[in-house]
Amino acid sequence: MSWFSSPAASISDALRRDGLHIVSPSGNRHVRNAVFTASGDAIENVELVLFCVKSYDTETAAKAFAPLVGARTAILSPAKRHR
User: Fold this and answer.
1) pLDDT tens digits for 25-49?
2) Which of 3, 4, 7, 23 could form a disulfide linkage to 36, CB 3.0–4.6 angstroms apart?
3) Is 67:40 a contact under the CB 8 Å cutoff?
4) Is 50 helix (H, G, I), strand (E, B) or coil?
5) What CATH homologous superfamily does 2-76 map to?
């Protein structure tokens, strides 16, 4: 598992320190042994991109992770639900 975030985001530092906590109805998981980076150079083509950005950052973020996308990469962009 690899985690790529914006160089401006401090989330990579927190993830390297604390890991990623996934809370799910099908079971919780704590991921520690992963690559958490703000540099796409550290990651090869990936199987899945979870594209979670604010709408105003969409173009910049897409350009940043474009080198990670291969012919078999799936991109999932969950939309924020408004109530």
Assistant:
1) 899 989 887 777 666 666 777 888 8
2) 3
3) yes
4) strand
5) NAD(P)-binding Rossmann-like Domain (3.40.50.720)
